[in-house]
Automatic annotation (TrEMBL):
Enzyme Commission number, as recorded: 2.7.13.3
Catalytic activity reported: ATP + protein L-histidine = ADP + protein N-phospho-L-histidine
Pfam families: HATPase_c, HisKA
Designated name of the protein: Sensor-like histidine kinase SenX3
Domain Histidine kinase: 182-399
Amino acid sequence: MPNAQDVVRAAAIADYGVLAEAPAADAGGADLRGLTELAAAVAGVPNAVINIIDERQQHQIAAVGFEASVCSREDSMCSRVFEGPDQTIVADARADARFAQNPFVTGEIADVRFYASSPLRTPGGLPIGSLCVFDDEVRELDEHGARSLGLLAEQVVDVLELRRLTRELRRSNEQLAQFAGQVSHDLRNPLAALTGYLELAADSPELAGAPDATKALSRAESAAERMAALVEDLLDFARIGGSARRRPVALGDVVRAAIADLDAQIDAAGATVDVGELPVVQGDATLLGALAQNLLANAVKFASADGARPRVEVRAERLSGGWRLTVDDDGPGVPAEERERVFGLMQRGDRAEVEAGVEGLGIGLSTCRRIAQAHGGRIGIDDSALGGASVWVLLPAGD
């Protein structure tokens, strides 16, 4: 039965996807093979391999000098040492008690003499395998070669981490596409009914002498038209598999449209929304509109609960290669320990929401994270200078 360390290691290995999918099939596979070639070159040997070791087997996911394969953990040389804190360098494995009877040394599988390996450790410090070089001749590895082998092992983990992040982004985009398709489908029928009722009301003779009501209906019709366009765009987004269409988008226009759609909610809360100068970014106008509307709606909902007039501020700061958009409120904020949880689907923060009986399923911030990721960006929450929460989004520049 696997021990606790093996269970945790198996989960980490599964996240990298190197056993379920052939690494050579993606860009990471070419990078891994390139690192094995470098490792063999710096050690001056013909053979190098990247091993991933689970509770039962050693998986050679990239190799130079021989064909990569799988062997049992019992037969593996690296399984004897990869969980240790240091490199292992052995000039002649026949003279080392750890390896002398190993089938890779005795000739049963191979005739390894020189052996050196550096452990592969995840960013959290968990050992998952090794970068190994070996030869069938006795030899030494100098200090420069040993240091280079260690650095290459770190780069192997960097490639695996990039592979993991890429897979997570792909999965996130697929989920966003499914979510968009379902939401847009669910909205079409009630939206069509709403538009029909508004048209009937606007044509009613009773409103001929009521200019305020006519104006309100006109604004409602405009909002319904914008929502219909949003639904259609979401359907298009779902059809193309969740890929954000990249075009220059004026964030100022996007935010002003979102404020117009939230006009009734903002008035009901008595909130003021102060929008600074906003840039042009690269992105999907429809998705960024949904992002802005969600963030503003949340900010207004959770703004000042002490009876004062709620305040919301929207700002942008230029960063290297992009922009940092922030939406600040003066509400109760989000405790640091909850800031990751509230981005989960169907999650709601404490922010006095449950006590106040606020309705909603908590899908807003989950959607915002998916939209940010679809743009290659990130989203998070900090403390606001206004006293509440500051939700920030990193977006690529439009230039």
